[in-house]
Amino acid sequence: MSAHRITGDTLHVFRGERHVLRGLSFAATSGEYLEVSGANGAGKTSLLRTIVGLVHAESGSVEWNGRSIHADPRAFHAQLAWLGHESPLKGDLSAVENLRYAIGIRRPVDAAAIGRALDEVDASRFAERPVRTLSAGQRRRVALAGVLLAAAPLWVLDEPATHLDAAGHALVGHLVESRIKTGGIVIAAVHAALPVDEAHTRRLGLSTK
Amino acid sequence: MDWTWFHRFGSPPHLYRLAGTLVPWFAWPAAILLAAGLYGGLVLAPPDYQQGDGFRIIYVHAPSAWLSLMAYSTMAVAAALGLIWRMKVAHAVAASCAPIGAWFTVAALVTGMLWGKPMWGTYWAWDPRLTAELVLLFLYLGYMGLRAAIEDPQRADRASAVLAIVGVVNVPIVHYSVEWWNSIHQAPSVMKFGKPSISWPMLSPLLIMFVGFTLLFAALVLVRVRGEILRRERQSRWVAEVVAQ
Amino acid sequence: MRLAFRNRAQLLHPLLFFGIVTTLFPLALSPEASRLRDVAPGVLWVAALLSSLLAIEFLFRDDAQDGTLEQYALSGQSLTWLLFAKTVSHWLLAGLPLALMSPVAAYGLGVPVGAVPGIVASVALGTVALSLLGAVTAGLTIGIRRGGALLSLLTLPLAVPLLIFGAQATARAIAGTGIAGPMYFLAAFTVLGITLAPLAAAAAVRISLE
């Protein structure tokens, strides 16, 4: 498996009139977990959205394996699994149907793989019910299964453990660790640190000014 | 010294100063030409054999209509520059064109209605050109409405840019459809004035007015762009210096 | 890519609206058959336009709220194609039923039976173009407070050519003269829409996601 590298170089990002990120730089390579922390409003979500390309930085660049992410956005996105604040699930469909549809857009996926992913996040019990009947924590687990199924080398997660109990929190740490141990890169914005091997963890703290 | 600021605002202050120096070069010739054209059209040109003195309103109506279309095209071009090449000042130019173009459209509609009254006996008769101008006015209002409804200034710029580009593709289609609709339904016929035998004393003031209006448009846009730039960049150092002068 | 499980009552609302509006006109005017027949093209098309506007609002609203729209943008697939597919399925769920319902409304307006195929064809084609156009304006207005009114203001002027040619096609269908002319225009507009609208809609959605 080849090594990957994601870097941000002197990023300046504005949200409306607010100068949210001022000259921020970062780097992460295969096998590393980059944990972004900071108070509410410090810019964690803006940073993550800039990394995945939803937000364009005013100046500075984000590069994936040496090329700007905007040079070939589709190729970059094909190697990326993104989890935002909301769990991207359609209420009227079941967990299984949601995953089959969401991942099906990216790549063909069979029922067995979906079943395995749901097992890993301990969501098999409620996999067949419409998602709107699930609790927020249960939905988050299903969303995490979606991240697993994307089979992407880069994970960018915005507060992956929201709504999850202590067991769920530990689960997220475990999933992140598995990903980086197999050569992936994980970038996550968190309020509370995830239980990931310190040796492979880098930290980035954002402050409001 | 935070060099990012300099880099980012390198263009707006330049445009601000450039626009400032250019305004008199457009405004004065515009004033002179407009005065000359109006005098030529209202006083010197002979009365039309068909419409008497009523036709004279064309000296304001036709240039207004033409400029309303020009303004929309300019807005769309500026919007495209801002959208595709991410030139911030282009968005400022597009935003400046909109209200000016809208006013030209209103002027065209009002003068058109004033012209229509003696001709058709009513102020509004679904003449194709006036109807197309009305649709254009709605397009302008939609553009300005979209800008006003979006709080984030960058999103407002980019969203209205897409709208302007979609609109400019639509404008010729709208004109064509309305003309076609008019020909089917035989609504009161068009206020066409471009007959081959139009005499020079009638035509020359019209051409002068066209040029004068165009210069006026340019001058108005330049003035407005300066205001736009100041407003957009109001948190920067160079604006503080300008205001202090 | 069909979100075939959207079994919501929302699908019915635009159809009910269409039915109600076309009922209002005879009540407001007069039940005289010839008079109704005269205004039938206009009534049908204005009602179809307004009903379609109702439906277009829902095109992106839910996906934007639950985060699935973001996932489309980041899926590594062409957002243009994804939105095109979404627009097509939206039309199948909203525009096509409208076209199929138009004979009922037309009958109520005193339109001769022979005109029905022409009417259905013109409404079907017109609503395709309208869905494509609506995808762009809906993409621009995602998440705006009371965006529905703004959506109407943006979409209706752009839809004027559709209205003119669509109503003319319907009028000709009623009169029995050939509808080919206006239909060609509707078809041309639709083809233009198919090539350009998904692109513009993708751009609009990306801008709204920023």
Please outline the helices and strands:
The complex is a heterotrimer of chains A (209), B (245) and C (210).
Chain A: E1 5-15, E2 18-29, E3 33-38, H1 44-52, E4 59-64, E5 67-68, H2 73-78, E6 80-83, H3 95-106, H4 111-120, H5 136-149, E7 154-158, H6 166-181, E8 185-189, E9 201-206
Helix pairs in contact in A: 3-5, 4-5
Chain B: H1 3-8, H2 11-44, H3 58-84, H4 88-120, H5 128-149, H6 153-185, H7 200-232, H8 237-244
Chain C: H1 12-28, H2 33-56, H3 58-66, H4 68-73, H5 79-93, H6 95-108, H7 116-140, H8 147-158, H9 160-175, H10 180-209
Helix pairs in contact in C: 1-2, 1-6, 2-6, 2-7, 2-8, 2-9, 5-7, 5-10, 6-7, 7-8, 7-9, 7-10, 9-10
How would you characterize the overall build of this protein?
The complex is a heterotrimer of chains A (209), B (245) and C (210). By secondary structure, chain A is of the alpha/beta class. Chain A has 2 domains: 1-79 and 154-209, P-loop containing nucleotide triphosphate hydrolases (Rossmann fold); 88-151, no CATH class. Helices cover 32% and strands 27% of the residues of chain A. Chain A contains 6 helices and 9 strands. Chain A has helices at residues 44-52, 73-78, 95-106, 111-120, 136-149, 166-181; strands spanning 5-15, 18-29, 33-38, 59-64, 67-68, 80-83, 154-158, 185-189, 201-206. In chain A, the strands form 2 sheets. Chain A has a 5-stranded parallel sheet, sandwiched between helices. In chain A, strands 2-1-4-5 form a 4-stranded antiparallel sheet, covered by helices on one side. In chain A, helix 3 (95-106) packs parallel to helix 5 (136-149) and helix 4 (111-120) crosses helix 5. Chain B is mostly helical. Chain B is built from 8 helices and no strands. In chain B, helix 3 (58-84) packs across helix 6 and helix 3 packs parallel to helix 7 (200-232). The longest helix of chain B is centred in the N-terminal third of the chain and has 34 residues, at 11-44. Chain B starts with a helix and ends with a helix. By secondary structure, chain C is mainly α. Chain C contains 10 helices and no strands. In chain C, helix 1 (12-28) runs parallel beside helix 6 (95-108), helix 2 packs across helix 8 and helix 9 (160-175) packs antiparallel against helix 10 (180-209). Classes of the chains: A alpha/beta (209), B mainly alpha (245), C mainly alpha (210). Chains B and C meet through helix 5 and helix 6 of B and helix 7, helix 8, helix 9 and helix 10 of C.
